[in-house]
UniProtKB/TrEMBL annotation:
InterPro entries: Aldolase_TIM, DNA_rSAM_put, Elp3/MiaA/NifB-like_rSAM, Endo/Exo/Phosphatase_dom_1, rSAM, rSAM_sf, RuvA_2-like. Its cofactor is [4Fe-4S] cluster. Residues 54-297 form the Radical SAM core domain. Coiled coil: none annotated. The keyword RNA-binding does not apply. Keywords: Iron, Iron-sulfur, Metal-binding, S-adenosyl-L-methionine. One of its GO terms (molecular function) is metal ion binding. It comes from Alteraurantiacibacter buctensis. PROSITE patterns: RADICAL_SAM (PS51918). NCBIfam families: rSAM_link_UDG. This is Putative DNA modification/repair radical SAM protein.
């Protein structure tokens, strides 16, 4: 039997990694190899390597699995032990060599490394850590490293990952504990949250030490993130938003990534046959932004959902909330608080900043606001300016229909 070449393994393991959306090289510290003898890499450049899901979405930067062998049997995963797929396995040295070769050719900005669980959680975690160690200590690699950690591995090994990586992630996988038990029987929600809690404490402690001692080691400077699969179980958007909010509050996550479940070849019978519409994933990202940057609580986002707890697909959650709570509008852009401006549909954080800066010097007209937004028609019913007052616009029964994109447009995004 001939052994597969590195390129053949790469074809299998890069393809197997494409279902994971939880990587983005954001939020780390600035670092470069300038002045480091024999060092290479920098976290300051733009990423140039992307990965594409089968539906054409650009979901991430470079990413590979150490192996797609796995002793677990998560129903939604193409790499589960009962799946009939081609398998391959890299050594840590091979991954490090590939990363360096690609980096030198300017193909990539760093490494996103995940793995199926081979032999045991500890053994796999050791291999992930060893890869990062070779890169950091043998190649003096200063580029971005994102390591997926394994919650079942020993806390010491997970800690070592944090000392070497910019970002670490631990996937919660599914929004509800019952969904996890049903679809990932080998995983345990308590164990996952325990690992996240340990990571949160280690990150906070390292930051504290760094403030006191300049040479204290950095620990996951880009924080921790997680991923939730959307549409594989019966969880509603309200369940997902509630879970994300608890994760942000409880574990100081940098990001929660939402990944619309993609039907996989040879799928388990317990999975839905159809994928959820991609626009659902987009609406969840919008609701995530509302909580992180627009001052909405999770309960307020949930207020924008329908009777089944799902966000409307035809309009964004901010507009849905404003249409439900019309009594808060219109707001006077020349007087109202930043918090209320952020709630005006069609005004982003940047536009709000510009309005606040401009109104210190002059009184704003509708035309001025129109220059800051893509659609003045969307903003108009919700604001008052010195030359515009919407006469009972927010009372109109057909306001939603007036503001929703036309059905033909929606088809562009529908799955
Ligand atoms: S642990 Fe589960 S999700 Fe991860 S590779 Fe194995 S089967 Fe897939």
């Amino acid at each position: 039997m001939t052994h597969p070449t590195v390129i053949e393994k790469l074809a299998v393991l890069a393809d197997a990694a494409k279902y994971d959306a939880s990587c983005a090289s954001s939020g780390t510290t600035k670092r470069s190899s300038k002045g480091v003898k024999g060092g290479i890499g920098s976290t300051e450049g733009m990423g140039i390597c992307h990965s594409y899901a089968p539906d054409g979405r650009c979901i991430s930067l470079l990413k590979i699995l150490l192996t797609n062998h796995c002793i677990f049997d998560c129903h939604y995963c193409i790499n589960r032990k009962s799946s009939n797929v081609a398998r391959a396995r890299f050594t840590p040295q091979e991954v490090a060599d590939l990363t360096m070769a690609f980096y030198r050719r300017n193909y990539i900005e760093g490494l996103f490394l995940s793995s199926g669980i081979v032999k045991s959680a500890d053994h796999t975690m050791e291999q992930l850590v060893e890869t990062a160690r070779i890169l950091r200590h043998e190649h003096q690699f200063r580029g971005y490293i994102h390591l997926k950690t394994i919650p079942e591995a020993s806390p010491e090994l997970v800690h070592q990952a944090g000392l070497l990586a910019d970002r670490v992630s631990i996937n919660v996988e599914l929004p509800t504990d019952s969904g996890l038990t049903r679809l990932a029987p080998d995983k345990n929600a308590r164990q996952i949250e325990g690992a996240m809690g340990g990571m949160k404490m280690a990150i906070a402690q390292a930051r504290d030490e760094k403030k006191r001692f300049r040479h204290a080691p950095t620990f996951a400077p880009a924080g921790q993130s997680t991923q939730m699969i959307v549409g594989a179980d019966g969880a509603s958007d309200a369940d997902i938003v509630g879970k994300a909010s608890r994760l942000y509050d409880g574990f100081r996550l940098r990001r929660v990534y939402y990944s619309a479940f993609s039907p996989i070849p040879d799928a388990s019978a317990v999975l839905p046959l159809k994928r959820p519409p991609l626009i659902r994933e987009h609406r969840l990202y919008q609701s995530d932004w509302l909580m992180r940057f627009y001052g909405y609580s999770a309960q307020e986002v949930v207020q924008a959902t329908d009777s089944m707890g799902n966000l409307p697909l035809d309009i964004d959650p901010k507009l849905a909330w404003a249409l439900k709570f019309r009594e808060h509008f219109p707001v006077d852009v020349n007087r109202c608080s930043r918090e209320m401006l952020l709630r005006v549909p069609g005004l982003g954080t940047r536009a709000v900043g510009q309005i606040l800066a401009s109104r210190r010097h002059r009184t704003l007209r509708l035309e001025d606001v129109g220059k800051l937004t893509v659609s003045v028609a969307k903003v108009r019913p919700f604001i008052v300016t010195c030359d515009w007052r919407p006469t009972l616009l927010t009372d109109r029964a057909d306001l939603r229909a007036m503001l929703a994109p036309k059905a033909e447009q929606l088809e562009l995004f529908a799955a």
